[in-house]
Amino acid sequence: MTKGVLPTAEQVNEVKTRFLQKLESEPPADAFLPEDLKRITDNDLWITKLLEAFDLDVEKTLARLWENLAWRQSYGVYNINESNVNQEYLHDGSIYAHNKDKEGKPLLILSLKKHSKSKNLDDLLRLVVFWIERIHRENDLEKITIFMDMTGSGLGNMDLDFIKSIINMFEANYPYVPNYILVHELPFLLNAAFKLVKTFLPAKALEILRVTTKKDITEYVDKDNCLKLWGGNDDYEYKFE
Predict the structure, then answer these.
(1) Which residues pair with 100 in a beta bridge?
(2) Are 102 and 220 in contact (CB under 8 A)?
(3) Count of beta carbons in the 10 Å neighbourhood of residue 233
(4) Beta pairing class for 209-212 and 178-184
(5) H/E stretch holding 75
(6) Using an 8 Å Cβ cutoff, are 70 and 23 in contact?
(7) Is 3's pLDDT higher than 70?
(8) What's the order of all strands across the beta sheet hosting 106-111?
């Protein structure tokens, strides 16, 4: 992201105008979701965030906005709720949202200790979408810090396909969302596997990737927002509400 460079009103307007013109002249076979179209016509936030994510490139923003709307329609993002995601995964605490980072961005926590390769990848990704959309309903399109909690994890929990798929999902469908990617308490045993992970991360993900330990986690998440498990003061234990 171009730090500190915000799109101009003209750039936002150009994307919006050209998008609406294309929508009228070449409507998609499957109509985009009305909630998403309302997000474009009623304010500039989404387009602004996409322009920032794509370094103010109007053409790229237009193309990716169109792709994003098509994906959201086919995935049925507004139909995903707590009753139709995988119940075991929803309640086991392997993926959940809790607290905020130092910049006030919500934390999406992936507890790798609770992950295994036997889990269904599509169900896990659907749960990630459930949490992102839930956070966005409560915090209008807010950035999110992805907190990969590696505390107590071992080789059996390391699933490159899972990590790759989550990063790809953010890059393809939520490019404007990640604030930081924090990898916390990476066990020495998993160093080699993690080096492999870094080779397939896009450049923008590498820019916001931080590997933290109990000693330095408070640079990104203050003590009161840190679980005791991470070296903080919060004795929260996940229970879906």
Answers:
(1) 106
(2) yes
(3) 11
(4) parallel
(5) helix 58-75
(6) no
(7) no
(8) 95-100, 106-111, 144-149, 178-184, 209-212
Checking if the pLDDT of 4 tops 70, the result is: no
CA atoms within a 13 Å half-sphere pointing along the CA-CB vector of 134: 18
Q: Residue 1: which pLDDT band, with cuts at 50, 70 and 90? A: very low
pLDDT digits (tens, 9 = 90+) for 47-88: 999 999 999 999 999 999 999 999 999 999 999 999 999 999
pLDDT score for 191:
87
- For the whole model, what pTM was predicted? 0.94
Residue 147: phi and psi, rounded to 5, are -105, 100
The helix or strand, by DSSP H or E, that contains position 42, with its residue range, turns out to be: helix 34-42
* pLDDT higher at 89 or 198: 89
29: number of Cβ within 10 Å? 5
Tokens 């295994």 — which residue? 116
pLDDT at position 2: 37
The beta strand positions in the chain, using DSSP E, are 95-100, 106-111, 144-149, 178-184, 209-212
**What is the Cα–Cα distance from 64 to 172, expressed in whole angstroms?**
8
Encoded tokens for 49: 């965030």
Looking up tokens 């309640």, which residue turns up?
A: 91
Query: Which tokens in the block code for residue 89?
Result: 């995964």
> Tokens 């990969």 appear where?
148
Read off the DSSP letter of residue 108: E
Interacting residues of 216 by C-beta distance below 8 A, sequence separation 6+: none
Residue 108 near residue 97, CB atoms below 8 Å: yes
